[in-house]
Design goal:
The chain is mostly helical and 493 residues long. It has 21 helices and no strands. α2 packs antiparallel against α10 and α11 packs parallel to α14.
């Protein structure tokens, strides 16, 4: 439904302060590295005073903004969704007031997540989004029968609370003890604040961009906002799995070698090539199987064939920029690791202006699909500008090696796409394509064949990234004793 996107917009507006937590990862990583500790006890006052300071400042700020949001929700909805009827605006306002509780929990969770990243405890950190989704599912299954539509909003709040709660035990185990401590004069706080002002502004601009796109979509044909949301959710999945997760896991490492250009470029090149290794076949599969994916996930109830076509076309335009969307989080974190958040902000601001301008132009000709095209082109521009600036700063980005790997991935991905198309035609003859089961079987078989072809071609082309992938799997499946000096790292696996 269209109100879902509106609620996402207004709750994310509050989470721009969550940038504060990601800013202290390089600082906290530096403190940990200096102490050279394996077991972090509560006696490490410098570490936990910083955590408490950030936690209290962020919590108070988000609580105040949440209260303001609850009070002025009706006015905010009128601005964000002028195309909604008065009844729709009233319902969305009530839902928004409930969901304004979730940024409080997610803000606290972002600080805890920063601690876990700094201590390389990635397993629990990765579970928090899963619990967030479980909370939403609980809301849909158990709260809706009790509270009606508002049960979905309470499910989001529950998910946010679970997102936060799962991280607390590990943080306490590391030695954290809460205390009501705020010191705005602390040199680390000032340093983080200086770093994070552009970061907060960048996220704020990004969310304003989302609001503007939402306003444009709400004034297009009925259901356009929902179509945009569906397509955006689908294309975000591979970006989150292969882009954001790699960038988050690499951030502490990048922070520790940020000013060693040779090691930084070496680590960046390896991580970037790994991202491309996964995102390129994901792009091809999403493009070639988008009709099957959309029909299986959304093709029921009031979601008719016209809606399906709109979503397929919109998703197709989104896939153009998957490589850029998956790479931007890594590029941006290199800037953050080097204590430079101003440059990504300026580049983000440029790309947002381009996105809004193109969205207005393209939506007139292509409707909701034009919004996706504008989004993709602006992200590609963002990627190019980030790369150019980093190239100037570092002098070398290992482009030759990256280009060689990318060429191999392109060949393997094109072969994957051809195999998927052939498999779809082959399976089509033996299943009923007018049923859910038939479409599902066609998509699964074609997808598996495509992946096998991609892996086979990567093997024939001797892609070293495939070897990294197999070695990482074997490493996780193999149980062995770990030396005492590696315990800190091993716990994060």
């Amino acid at each position: 439904m269209d109100w879902e996107v509106i609620l996402i917009c207004i709750t994310r507006l509050l989470l721009v302060l969550g940038a504060l937590s990601s800013g202290f990862v390089p600082i906290l990583t530096g403190i940990i590295k200096d102490k050279k500790l394996i077991f972090f006890k509560s006696s490490n006052h410098k570490i936990w005073d910083l955590v408490n300071n950030i936690l209290n400042i962020l919590s108070l700020s988000v609580i105040i903004l949440s209260i303001v949001g609850i009070i002025f929700a009706p006015s905010l909805i009128k601005i964000i969704a002028p195309g909604f009827s008065s009844e729709q605006q009233m319902i969305t306002s009530n839902l928004a007031r409930i969901m304004f509780l979730s940024p409080i929990f997610l803000g606290i969770s972002s600080v805890l997540g920063g601690v876990l990243q700094s201590f390389k405890r990635f397993f629990v950190y990765s579970l928090s989004p899963v619990l967030y989704n479980i909370g939403i599912i609980i809301g849909a299954l158990f709260f809706v029968p009790i509270f009606g539509l508002y049960g979905l909003a309470w499910g989001v709040v529950l998910g946010a609370f679970m997102h936060m709660s799962i991280q607390f035990p590990v943080v306490f185990f590391l030695g954290f003890k809460y205390k009501p401590y705020i010191n705005l004069k602390d040199k680390n706080i000032r340093k983080i604040g200086k770093m994070m002002i552009p970061r907060v502004m960048s996220l704020g601009i990004s969310q304003i961009n989302l609001v503007v796109i939402t306003i444009i979509a709400s004034m297009l044909a009925s259901g356009s906002l929902a179509v945009f949301n569906f397509a955006n959710n689908l294309q975000t999945f591979p970006v989150s799995i292969f882009g954001i997760s790699f960038a988050v896991a690499a951030f502490p490492v990048l922070s520790s070698i940020a000013f060693d250009k040779k090691e930084l470029v070496k680590s960046f090149s390896k991580i970037f090539r790994q991202i491309l290794f996964f995102i390129m076949p994901a792009t091809v599969l999403l493009l070639t199987l988008r009709a099957q994916i959309v029909r299986v996930l959304f093709g029921s109830g009031k979601f008719d064939w016209t809606d399906t076509i709109l979503t397929i076309n919109t998703l197709g335009f989104f896939t153009i920029s998957l490589f850029a969307q998956a790479s931007i989080p890594l590029l941006v974190r290199i800037f953050y690791a080097r204590h430079n958040s101003k440059t990504p902000f300026i580049i983000s601001l440029i790309s947002v202006f381009v996105n809004v301008f193109l969205a207005i132009v393209f939506s007139k000709k292509l409707g909701v699909s034009g919004l996706a095209l504008a989004f993709s082109l602006s992200n590609i521009l963002n990627f190019i500008l980030l790369w150019i600036v980093l190239r100037i700063e570092l002098g070398n980005m290992d482009e030759i090696r990256i280009l060689k790997s990318a060429t191999k991935f392109c060949i393997a991905s094109l072969s994957c796409g051809v195999a998927v198309q052939g498999a779809k035609l082959l399976v089509w003859k033996y299943v009923n394509m007018e049923t859910f089961v038939g479409i599902f079987i066609q998509g699964v078989i074609a997808g598996i064949i495509g992946l096998l072809v991609y892996i086979s071609f990567c093997s024939l082309l001797k892609c070293e990234e495939l070897d990294y992938f197999w070695k990482s799997i074997k490493k996780r499946l193999k149980f062995k004793n770990v030396e005492i000096n590696d315990q800190g790292e091993a716990r994060g696996v």
